[in-house]
Write a structure and sequence with these properties.
This protein is an all-alpha fold and 502 residues long. It is 84% helix and 0% strand. Helix 4 packs across helix 6.
């Protein structure tokens, strides 16, 4: 019992570290994005977006799910770790060579003649990226979240924050973003080497290799389908509408991805190891799943409404007037914020249960939905049509995977749907106010700020005051109390001062 309590406290302290670390990262990313958006063009961002599509796809094969296997396996030895490092470096070199020779064909596909040099530059980075992936996974397994937070924060600040901004001021254009990626990787490698000394060995133990690869291959299959599901919109926009349109769309999607990644990274990095340790306890997994979905609805749904209402303000302040075309796609995408994070929850539970091949099937369905929806949308309504396609596919995928998870855990799907209905009813006054205001117009940016502060924010208190909301569900109250009671003293005192717990 004492060991379980210690793990719970470590996880919650890790959660708090990740929360504040990711909060700082989001703030710094928005600040850096705002500066770069005024120095570079939409086409520059579009070209780097195209390159990163293929870099991220290749990254799947430099890992082959080995890092995830290190987190998920119940027990690992020093041989697991040393063979993982060796295998990842080999895979990184092989993928880098392949990427180098495919560079001309990628440029031809997107009708861009100047892609070959940047793509070949990235091909030399793959061995280091695969190495870093293993180190991060080991730190994650050990619940050393402060090390992960420091590495991510410092590397981003020195990479994009210092390198890219300086080079953009000096007129390097697209290459300022590319050299920023290199700087991030160098800092990551040095810091991860410091926090987690690597070890290498000849791949001789076939049983360990098989153990890593069986889980890893299933995860890779799942990740491949997930890649096409998550990137088909970018590929379609880049191919059909061009690099400049992709630059616009990628900024709209980044405004969705930043808050989604903020919560998603916390959930994955802190709670996935804990869920893996409880994979045989169906009752606890069920309780935690319902609590996670409830949190998703009660916190993220109102955030999405506020962001939707203030989309013009966000774009003008952070990006500037040359990026106003970002507004409409962003407003459509942000509607699906809670469902996107809910999908992240579903994936974490499937991974923690070891059902990576089930996850691969669900990701395949998601990929088909995404590709067909985005293709239809881009030819009907352009960028807004792609955003509508993404929204539709995201919601449908969330519902279909949740339906399958309820068969694995111990709850009724009717109860699951009622959670969503309850949340929507509680936030209905805000939805009505926002819809009517956007329809009739709010006149100016100043008016949108006044309405947000004087009307929308007070309405957010309704679910907190309403004792029938899912926040006060008997099950969720129990889980929330457990969370607070295992938190550091300052968090306990703050929660009790606000009467959030007894």
């Amino acid at each position: 019992m004492e060991g379980n309590s210690s793990k719970t406290k470590s996880s919650i302290i890790g959660l708090i570290w990740m929360f504040f670390g990711n909060s700082f990262n989001v703030f710094s990313q928005l600040l850096i994005l705002g500066i770069l958006a005024r120095l570079l063009t939409p086409e520059d961002f579009g070209v780097i977006g195209i390159i990163l599509i293929f870099v991220n796809f290749s990254n799947i094969f430099t890992q082959m799910g080995i890092g995830t296997a290190l987190v998920q396996l119940k027990t690992i030895t020093e041989q697991h770790i040393s063979q993982s490092y060796t295998l990842s470096i080999i895979l990184g070199i092989l993928i880098g060579v392949l990427f180098y020779f495919l560079a001309p064909y990628i440029g031809t596909f997107f009708n861009l003649t100047d892609l070959e040099g940047p793509i070949r530059f990235f091909s030399f980075l793959f061995p280091f990226k695969s190495f870093n992936g293993i180190s991060t996974s080991i730190l994650q397994r050990k619940l050393r979240f402060p090390a992960i937070v420091k590495t991510n924060t410092i590397s981003y600040l020195l990479g994009y924050g210092l390198t890219s901004i300086t080079l953009a001021f000096l007129g390097y254009g697209l290459w300022s973003l590319i050299y920023g990626q290199l700087a991030i990787l160098i800092v990551e490698t040095v810091m991860l080497w410091y926090y987690q000394k690597p070890s290498f060995s000849i791949i001789s133990n076939k049983s360990i290799l098989k153990e890593l690869m069986v889980f890893g291959s299933g995860y890779t299959l799942d990740t491949n389908f997930n890649f096409f599901a998550e990137n088909s919109d970018n590929i379609i926009v880049g191919k059909v509408l061009g690099a400049a349109s992709l630059g616009i769309y990628s900024r709209a999607f980044q405004f969705l991805a930043l808050p989604a990644s903020f919560f998603g990274k916390i959930y994955d990095k802190v709670l996935f190891p804990v869920l893996s340790n409880k994979q045989d306890d169906k009752a606890k997994l069920t309780s935690f799943y319902i609590f996670s979905i409830s949190f998703c609805l009660i916190i993220l749904f109102p955030i999405s409404i506020i962001l939707l209402f203030n989309a013009e303000l966000i774009v003008r302040v952070l990006l500037g007037d040359q990026w106003l075309d970002v507004i409409e796609p962003f407003q459509v995408l942000i509607i699906g914020f809670a469902f996107r994070f809910g999908t992240r929850i579903n994936k974490s539970f499937l991974k923690s249960l070891g059902l990576v091949y089930h996850g691969a099937l669900y990701q395949f369905i998601f990929a088909v939905l995404m590709i067909s929806s985005c293709l239809m949308g881009v030819y009907l309504f352009g960028l807004v049509g792609v955003a509508l396609g993404v929204l539709f596919a995201t919601v449908m995928n969330y519902l279909q995977v949740s339906f399958r998870i309820q068969k694995l855990l111990d709850f009724k799907y009717k109860y699951f749907l009622m959670l969503h209905a309850n949340a929507f009813i509680n936030f209905l006054p805000i939805v009505i106010v926002v819809t009517l205001t956007l329809f009739f117009g709010y006149g100016s940016i100043a008016n949108s700020i006044i309405i947000s502060i004087a009307v929308i924010l007070p309405l957010l208190l309704i679910p907190v005051k309403n004792k029938k909301s899912i926040f006060y569900d008997a099950h969720n109250s129990l889980m929330f109390n457990q969370f607070v009671n295992n938190s550091p003293g300052i968090v306990k005192r703050f929660a009790r001062k606000l009467n959030l717990v007894k």
